Amino acid sequence: MSAVIEKSNNLFLYQQVINLIREMQQGGLIGPGEKLPSLRNLAEKLSVSVPTVKQAYLELEFQGIITARPQSGYYLKSVESNLSAPKKSSFPRKPVAVSRQELIEHVYSAIHQPRNLSFGVANPIAALPPTKAINRAMRRVLSVAGDKALNYGPMQGYEPLRRQLAMRYLDYGLHLSPEEFVVTNGAQEAISICLQTVAKPGDVIAVESPCYFGVLELIESLGMLALEIPLCADNSLCLEDVKKAVSNHDVRACVFSATIANPMGCILSDDKKADLVAFLESQNIALIEDDVYGDLYFTKQRGALAQKFSTKGLVLTCSSFSKTAAPSYRVGWVATPGYADKATKLKRAISCSSSLMNQWVMTEFLRSGEYDRYVKQLRQKLLTNKERMLGLICRYFHPDVRVADPKGGTVLWLALPREFDGNEIFRRALEQNISISPGSLFSPTNRYQNCIRLSYGLPWSEEIEQGIKTLSDICR
After folding, report:
1. Angstrom distance (rounded) from CA 380 to CA 375
2. 467 and 117 in contact (C-beta within 8 Å)?
3. Residue 97: in which H helix or E strand, if any?
């Protein structure tokens, strides 16, 4: 049995024990109400320490999966989760002009109120800030660079950072040169540059549905049209839906988060990703991949980038360190073998260059190896927070609520019964100093009126549990 626990696995040992208990539950090896192995017994079987098993049991107890009985041991709870995934939405009739800016302004205003409990902002690092590691990197940079770090940076980006990115992309199976990267002010600017690189005002842009509202706002500001491709909470995009959209409409480009979607948290498998890229390139349609959550996976390994399967150079990859290191640094990038020159010119026209100091610090953070160590810990923290929040929703919310179980990222997507109004829940939650994101924010056609998005990227506290309970009371 000890072979089940892998000391070299990316998952912490206690998390592997949690996964094992869940597998035993799902496989019927342990039934509701049955006693779990004792701490010492399971520790011996798995060749781990008793404190490791104890930590796993305490976390499972917090999540409401097992219960402790005094002087008896731990037992699997009789009541199991009744949460199911949201249903796939219907296919839209036509592309539409986007009008989301007013609602986005309301949501952002709520997010930045200091007294509010911010379920509405997707800021993963808040769960485990890397402040000390970033400060160490900054001190090392200042001791070497001095005044040079305060200068303007190159338009295409700090060359050592682009080298570091090129080396990382080798690990993803992509051989790119530093000249094929353009450093941007966050992923939002990266996507904007990519849209302007491959499309013009009036063009049709296919997007996931639900779709990150920042992408919708960009499409709106650029005078383009959005065509929704419905997502499946379990399997992400369906290639047949994409083919249907392309056959019925003059799609100029697609913006997809195929690795980890926001807000669904679903993943498109590598083989389906390869088929998607092959089809789009056969139609000469550009794919802009938003990979900002790519490093925050809960699966055994990171999903492949869509660009890995490109043969015509029509895939542009956008990402940043905003979700995995330092949001305020605004260090993002475009990886684009086919459009590097045009993207650089657009970058120069939009913002000239990105902060040299911030790029230099992120370069050192990567070079030192601290970034990878930190992100590994962050994934563990987010996975724990996700399971805790799912347990709270199962405990407090309406029994008919549907919840997407994300395979990575930092948010949960809740579909409430049809009679519920996400905008009204948003308004009433604000009165209780809680910010959420209403579902209609994620659709250009006002879909998902009965949905809300909640972030578990927060330092866990009793305030979060009380906040979820208050939200359930508002929904009732």
Report:
1. 9
2. yes
3. strand 96-97
Structure tokens at 234: 């379990």
> How far is it, in rounded angstroms, from Cα 358 to Cα 374?
18
Distance of alpha carbon 316 from alpha carbon 182, whole angstroms: 11
Per DSSP, 468 falls in state H
Q: Are strands 204-209 and 225-230 parallel, antiparallel or unpaired?
A: parallel
d(CA 264, CA 258): 11
> How distant, in Å, are the alpha carbons of 189, 190, 380 from that of 125?
20, 21, 12
Nearest to 429 by CA among 462, 402, 398, 467: 467
Listed range (108-117, 147-156, 253-262, 395-404) with the worst mean pLDDT: 108-117
- Residues 291-311 pLDDT 10s: 999 999 999 899 999 999 999
- Is the bond into 32 cis (omega within 30 degrees of 0)? no
How high is the pLDDT of residue 398?
83
And the tokens for 127?
A: 């769960």
Distance, CA of 392 to CA of 466 (rounded, Å): 10
Region for 466 from its dihedrals, namely left if φ exceeds 0, alpha if ψ lies in -120 to 50, beta otherwise: alpha
Q: What is the DSSP string of 251-262?
A: EEEEEE--SS-T
With a pLDDT cut of 70, the percent of the chain lying above it is 94
Task: Give the pLDDT confidence score for residue 138 in this predicted structure.
Answer: 94
User: What is d(CA 383, CA 19) in angstroms, rounded to the nearest whole number?
Assistant: 11
Enter the tokens of residue 303: 């999903």
Comparing CA positions, the residue from 252, 263, 323 lying closest to residue 287 is 252
- Segments of 348-419 assigned E as strands: 402-403, 411-415
Question: CA separation (Å) from 75 to 36, 55, 398?
Answer: 6, 15, 26
Q: For 199-233, write each residue's pLDDT tens digit.
A: 999 999 999 999 999 999 999 999 999 999 999 98
Distance in angstroms (rounded) separating the CA atoms of residues 119 and 429: 10
CB 63 within 8 A of CB 390: yes
**Residue 103 parent element (H or E):** helix 101-111
CA distance 58 to 53: 9
Q: What is the mean pLDDT of the chain?
A: 90
Distance, CA of 389 to CA of 11 (rounded, Å)? 20
Identity of the amino acid at 113? Q
Query: Where are the alpha helices (H) located in 249-369, listed in sequence order?
Result: 270-282, 340-351, 356-367
Is 317 strand, coil or helix? strand
Q: What is the Cα Rg of the chain in Å?
A: 23
Take residue 435 and report the two structure tokens written for it: 């910010």
DSSP β-ladder status, 96-97 and 225-230: antiparallel
CA distance 17 to 5: 7
- Beta bridge pairs of residue 288: 255, 316
Separation of CA 94 from chain center = 28
